[in-house]
Amino acid sequence: MKSFTNTFQVGAGVLLSLSTVVSGSSSSMWLPYSYGDKIFDVLNTVAAVDSTKNLELVTEKTGGDKGTNDKKVKNCKDVIPLEKISGMPRFLRKITGDRKLRPKDKVPEFTLPSIDGKEVALSDVLADNDYVLIDFWATACGPCIAQFPKLKEIHSTYNELGFEIVSVCTDLTDEQWEESSEEHQLPWIDVGDINDDFLGGPTSKAFRLRSIPRSYLVDTNGCILHTHMFPTPLEGFLESEYGEELKTQEQDADPTRSDVTNNEDEVLD
Hints:
By secondary structure, this protein is an alpha/beta fold. It has two domains: 2-70 and 82-96, no CATH class; 111-250, Glutaredoxin (3-Layer(aba) Sandwich), CATH 3.40.30. The protein contains twelve helices and seven strands. The chain has a five-stranded mixed beta sheet with strand order 5-4-3-6-7. Strands 1-2 form a two-stranded antiparallel sheet. Helix 1 (2-23) packs across helix 5. The longest helix is centred in the last third of the chain and has 23 residues, at 231-253. It is globular and about 55 Å long. Mean pLDDT is 75; it is low at 16-38, 40-59, 64-71 and 80-87.
């Protein structure tokens, strides 16, 4: 195991050097996200095997959930940085970065300006709702925009029952964000993590984003239930959670049902 770790460290150092040469800048240490994520998984598995107290992490890192989790999370936890798990050299983190947020992790708290100029704290939104979809998007992201029509339907159906959406725009300028929001007329909470470096805003960094669209369905405690939560599975989840309540609400709102009931009572009399 020791020889494997040493070999991997040497290889990682070479990869870091190559990334610096390709980028032309020693400050740009990022490899493509898919490679970094895989490297992290290997490192964490090695660290877990190398440390008896972290042995239980092996199963999680090698065969754990890839993006979904059933119902509410019982044991929500804050994300533990790599260096605290394995004690690996700091230069390896420059290659991999921190790992992706996953189900059972707790989302980072943030406060961002909304499109109408108000400051919105995620903690306040979570406190007022059962479930919140945090959806990162940008004007130039076609797949992000394509989800809006279906999300509008879902929001209209479930918002009053305890579901909310927080869209986080990652545009490069406020002007881009304002124009796009005006065009798409988002009916939910629309905040901006605007930065002239793509995904360089503090919230995007806190969520460790490397690409969009990216969304997280969280419960009222801020625990991630699902990642990459696209409209169709989101609708299925909410239907399973609110189906009976929604059915009752629709029946109460239908005046013809009360008329039918009254007529039946008259016939029985």
